[in-house]
Amino acid sequence: MDRRYRGTPHGLRDTDCGRAPSGAHDCRALGVHLGGFVELSIAWRRPAAMMALAALAAPAFAEDERPVTATVGGRLHLDFATFDNDNRGTPNKDDTEIRRAWLDVSGKFFVVDYKLEADFSGDRVEAKDVYLSRSFGDAGRLTVGQFKQYFSLDDRTGSNYGSFLERGNAGTTLAPLYRLGASWQANPGDFTWAASVYSLESIDAWQVKGRAAGGRVTWAPAPGEGDVLHLGLSLAREAYDNPGGNGTPGLKIRPRPAGHLSDESRLTLVDFSAGRDTDVNKWSLEYAQVRGPLSWQGEFSGATFDDGAQRGGVMAAYGMLSWFVTGESRAYDRKTGRFARVKNIRHKAGAFEVALRYDQMWGAQHLDGQPDLRRGSTEGWTLGGNWYLRDNLRFMLNVIESRNRDRLAGTTVDRTRAVTGRLQSPQMMLSILGFGMVITFMYLIMSKRLSPLVALITIPIIFALIGGFAAGIDEMMLEGIKKIAPTGVMLMFAILYFGVMIDAGLFDPLVRIILRFVKGDPMKIVLGTAVLAMLISLDGDGSTTYMITVSAMLPLYQRLGMNALNMTCVTILAGGVMNLTPWGGPTARAATALHVDPADVFVPLIPSMVIACAGVLLLAWYLGMKERRRLGVVTLPKGGSWMDNSVSDDGNTLPTVEDAEDTKRPRLLWVNLALTVALMSALIIGVLPMPVLFMIGFAIALVINYPNLAEQRRRVVSHAGSVLSVVALIFAAGIFTGILNNTGMVEAMSHSFLAIIPDSWGPYLAVITAVASMPFTFFMSNDAFYFGVLPILSEAAGNYGITPVEMARASLAGQPVHLLSPLVPSTYLLVGLAKVEFADHQKFTLKWAIAISLLLMIGGLLFGLYPFTT
């Protein structure tokens, strides 16, 4: 045999095309396509590879203004199939699968474009597009690496944009798929063309040996929206080395007419697995037209096989008709000669498409000079329905009738009916990555397998690398740290300021008053904690609430041996309710995002806040009663001196604490009180940024109370541990939020949630928003929720008569849960001051936080702040 080329069609596999093991031949060969996009291939040679790499480094015709960019994408396809098999052949089993779970990162690195893409759906990660590319202006583009070869309109149209779950028989068996090589593509006028030389190996299927060349050309005269004529031609020449011999995979054409999961409905049309070098020639003619909502498309493809002892051939043809019932049109990409994402969905309910396809493939094989030893055909009808809820979310349903025939025996060997479906979301992979990162973080810290500090740093980095963000991860982390730096500085000097005030004894009179009131009763102490936290929370700043409350109350909890988690629980819940004041943050964000008056949001909210506060007090009573039953009531000495010892009725003695009178400054009590009141007033008014105010306040307090330099150093050193533990967590959280936000995970998480809300739930969007605010403000920052998710929800709710101000009120219900998020810096301050574990605090408080949030929501419904339904 004259062996100029040897190879196996990329996609001609002994096993499932698309589910084959890495060693299987991909049943598709590289070919030259002509039809709006010309793709030609030449035999792969080392000199050609060196020339291609050299061209990548050549001067560019034009440079992007940004030298380095990175964009993350992906796709998730969840499939199911149910079969009605006749009694011929082995029946297929009903099944489900994650068909595709792709993640990719693409962008520019100075003058070179790049793309890294992998599929995580199988037992192992499989590489897809992995290449470098360089534009040379109008002359074209050079691509080097592993990429999908250029063959047929059906195969070149992405799996996100086809009208059916599966491509036709030729697209799944003859097209070369992903191969290592080099290509040149250009788009002159109404034409596109591409030519490539490639190896029959891929990154994963390295056992397949051989060389190939192929190309494609297309012509689409002045395509416009709803008006497209497409003609194309694809060609390929492949030379396989010893298919089926020496451990290499065999070369077979075995289509799946009943869908990807129909492994038992496959007929072998040709089989060249005898270990002899095999030449394969492929071709495909393309035609498609779009006229408004209607489109029709067809291709006629074929391939010949020759291993020197036997010859074979296959031919395939399909025709399809598509109609968008809702009036949209199939989108066409003239630069690449293929169909693209449906745009401009016209109706709130989405776009609906119905499509019908007939597909047939037939093949024959014979020894040289002998009659056919194999001749068969497969055919199938597919009726498809597509519901595009969004341009990036689609439900697909296909009904398939297929038949395989042995033409030599004149019999039907298999007839199968199938119903297959798919949920498709390109953004869902990024959303899953984001939720996976937060859930993994939460699991590791709540199970105490990692400390919060270590988890905040390592977990986002690991997930960023998994998602392919290595190129820009440094900038993401730095941006996150920069955004959170003012908070870190504020907390550092706030801890130092209140530490000085505690040392000087500013809060001692308050503690004595509380002690005289509570009289050693744990129930009254927990209630007093809640009341104190509510009053201090009126300033709108959680950090000061936590510092003052813990400073005043922690000694009491320690003296009586009470569980400090009770203190952190009621303190954070009181702050979560009282922080809804217009100057507190969440209310201002919601009002700003929806362009409404903060007063219109807050004032009607007061009755439901009263109900929630009552819930917090009731919880404090319940937790206090539990502590009273556990510890009893301790009798304190007259005069309320908490430094003295006393004996309770049952003979228990209060534990003593170390005397620290050398740091007390009782003569400066009123000076320190005036300074603190002035500082709090300046914070509320906003005289200067909060970090600056605390820095100034700390400097003044330190000099007034401890003018001696040595004593100043001792005061700073005594609080260094608290400062370091809290501020380190804050900056670590900057890495977490920087990666979560800048990778696009937060946006993808938001869109994934919005995409699953059916339109029939529209009248309930206010309640849905109130409920959703709990998990969403837990998994993402307030800024991301109020400025990213809430405006979209509000816009949708407006169609059902729900006003923006009602949506703003509903969105605030989840704030008690939000404060438990690992993304809230002040929470680390609370647990650090109280000397409890973050995970223990979350587990203890979460159920109560949900209960208080539900009280806020119920109060809002009772007082008509937003409707249950419209």
TrEMBL record:
Transmembrane regions listed in the UniProt entry: 428-446, 452-472, 560-581, 601-623, 668-686, 692-709, 721-741, 761-779, 848-868
A single cellular component GO annotation: membrane
Leader sequence segment: none
Pfam family membership, one: Porin_O_P
Cross-referenced InterPro entries: Cit_transptr-like_dom, Citrate_transporter, Porin_dom_sf, Porin_O/P
Keyword set, alphabetical order: Membrane, Transmembrane, Transmembrane helix, Transport
Single GO MF descriptor: citrate transmembrane transporter activity
Sections of the chain in a coiled coil: none
Protein topology in the membrane: Multi-pass membrane protein
Subcellular location: Membrane
Main location: membrane
Domain called Citrate transporter-like: residue spans: 441-814
Protein name, as recorded: Citrate transporter-like domain-containing protein
Species name: Knufia peltigerae
